[in-house]
């Protein structure tokens, strides 16, 4: 069952979205400006699934097993993307000091190991975001972790974005 963001009440999120409140970074309008919903739009989900295909291609090139899609982790990743946009921050840790592992646990994600989180912002396509992550040693290490068995990918195409998050985990 899908749970709304725990950080801000749903009525407050709706009011912020209606007012057009975005990040505090003064960035120009993106060609994407999707108001946040309870879950990813069809377009955002398609982008997330393309990222999954590209991640699994990179894993195969490096002799690794593919990671499986995890819906609950994807919900947690999307919620983090929306939270960052609406509250004007960009970080692995929320202002309340909650990291990706805590957000996944709060979202009911069962895991044996929290492998890591990758974030990105402003990359306009799945190809560009995966290329950027592969070009960064720390992000690449998470994507190519031999311990990862599942991933949740969230995309929010709102103002100041797109916002991207990957939550990698291991489950037996």
How would you summarize this macromolecular structure in one to three sentences?
The protein is built from six helices and four strands. It has helices at residues 10-19, 42-61, 71-87, 100-106, 126-134, 137-143; strands at residues 68-69, 113-121, 150-156, 163-170. 40% of the residues are buried.
Question: What is the number of strand segments?
Answer: 4
Give the termini separation: 22 Å
**Structural class category:** alpha+beta
Helical fraction:
40-55%
Low-pLDDT stretches are 1-31
Major sheet: size, sense and barrel closure?
4 strands, mixed
What is the average per-residue confidence, as pLDDT, rounded to a whole number?
83
User: Could you spell the SSE succession in H and E letters?
Assistant: HHEHHEHHEE
Number of helices: 6
Taken as a percent bin, the fraction of beta residues is 15-25%
Radius of gyration: 15 Å
* Lateral strand order in the biggest sheet: 1-3-4-2
C-alpha geometry:
globular
Please supply descriptive tags for the structure shown above.
single chain; 172 residues; alpha+beta; 4-stranded mixed beta sheet; 4 strands; 15% strand
């Amino acid at each position: 069952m899908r749970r709304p963001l725990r950080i801000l009440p749903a009525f407050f999120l709706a009011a912020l979205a209606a007012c057009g409140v975005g990040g505090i970074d003064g960035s120009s309008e993106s060609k994407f400006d999707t108001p946040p919903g309870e879950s990813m739009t069809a377009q955002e989900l398609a982008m997330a699934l393309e990222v999954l295909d590209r991640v699994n291609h990179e894993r195969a090139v490096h002799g690794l097993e593919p990671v499986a899609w995890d819906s609950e982790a994807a919900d947690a990743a999307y919620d983090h993307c929306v939270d960052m946009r609406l509250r004007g921050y960009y970080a692995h840790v929320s202002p309340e000091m909650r990291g990706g592992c805590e957000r996944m646990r709060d979202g009911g994600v069962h895991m044996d190991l929290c492998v890591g989180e990758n974030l990105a912002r402003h990359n306009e396509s799945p190809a560009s975001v995966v290329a950027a992550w592969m070009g960064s040693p720390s992000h690449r290490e998470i994507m190519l972790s031999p311990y990862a068995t599942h991933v949740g990918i969230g995309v929010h195409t709102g103002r100041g974005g797109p916002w991207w998050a990957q939550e990698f985990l291991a489950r037996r």
